[in-house]
Amino acid sequence: MARKLKVAAAQLGPIHLADTREQVVARLVELMREAAAGGCRLVVYPELALTTFFPRYWYDDLAEADRFFEREMPGEATRPLFEEAKRLGVGFHLGYAELAEEEGRPRRFNAAILVGPDGEIVGKYRKIHLPGHADHRPNIPFQHLEKRYFEVGNLGFPVWRAFDGIMGMAICNDRRWPETFRVLGLQGVEMVLIGYNTPTFNIYHPEAPHLRTLHNDISLQSGAYQNGTWVVGVAKAGSEDGHELIAGSTIVAPNGEIVARALTMDDEVVAFDCDLGLGDYVKNTVFAFERHRRPEHYGRIVEQTGVRIEV
Ligand code: ING
To answer: 4-282 in CATH: which number?
Structure first.
């Protein structure tokens, strides 16, 4: 009997600085209703799905950025989403900026949660690969300050048994690092949920914009194929106060095939009825890790951080 999970990539169009949490949550609820009406049991929202991509802005005073963070989840503004999920009996993934109190001090993470059809949080992931820079660079069109506003995630790359399968999460830049998928793959992951906010413009080096979508696709497709897992990549897209983000939300099968793709740069539901066991043949043949991997030769992957030229 196939273990089917109809999943929705719930792509978001732009969220502007002036948009309130209540306005955004209303959009999330609308997308959830559309997905549920189409038979989806899991709705995947993007990274930082409650606010504009604020790491593009420099604030001298870090406290000025705190308005983009959630101090509790669910909180007053997000509770309607949890309640609607419970009413519809669907689960969801949500990316957001987390302001937590841990070890007696405030901690700020780029986080994502997985919520079950009962409206209860199944698990949380905190983004590990933080791209960009931490200093102010006024001579570029916008900043990318995730290293300023967030700490490196401290929860590892966990998986959870939920929705009749083994689920994992990653966030945006994490998808560019094969280690992300391999650590999840070594735990038998069957579906990886990834939200992203990816600017169309490269602030560090001239680059043709089409390469942003190419790099998104090859990252998601190789992660899926090389670990025999479904991957659901969901964009916040379009022009946020004039700053454009790529779209291209995508559902990738464990054989690396893109099976569904967003067509717009707006709020859009992209759904596919996934057979969670489809990756079994990939995991039992070409990527039968137990039979084929040779960790005794992989030492550099964990012993080194950067490149060491020794020749
Ligand atoms: N955004 C981008 C991402 O990894 C980026 C940043 C773009 C890094 C392109 C490198 C190249 O998709 C986030 N939020 O990580």
So the answer is: 3.60.110.10
Instruction: Measure CA of the first residue to CA of the last residue in the chain; give whole Å.
Output: 54
Give residue 51 CA to ligand 1 midpoint distance, Å.
17
Pairing state of beta strands 91-102 and 42-44?
Answer: parallel
Please state whether the predicted TM-score (pTM) of the whole model is above 0.85: yes
Residue-wise pLDDT tens digits, 110-126: 999 999 999 999 999 99
pLDDT in tens, 141-153: 999 999 999 999 9
DSSP 163-217: TTEEEEEEEGGGGG-HHHHHHHHTTT-SEEEEEE--BSS-SSS---THHHHHHHH
3-class DSSP state for residue 146?
A: helix
Query: Can you tell me the distance from the alpha carbon of 1 to that of 20, in angstroms, rounded to the nearest whole number?
Result: 45
Residues that are catalytic: 47, 127, 172
Q: Map out the domains of the chain as residue ranges.
A: 4-282
How far away, in angstroms, is 129 Cα from ligand 1 center? 10
Q: Which atom of ligand 1 is nearest to the CA of 172?
A: 15
> Which residue's alpha carbon is at the smallest distance from atom 1 of ligand 1?
198
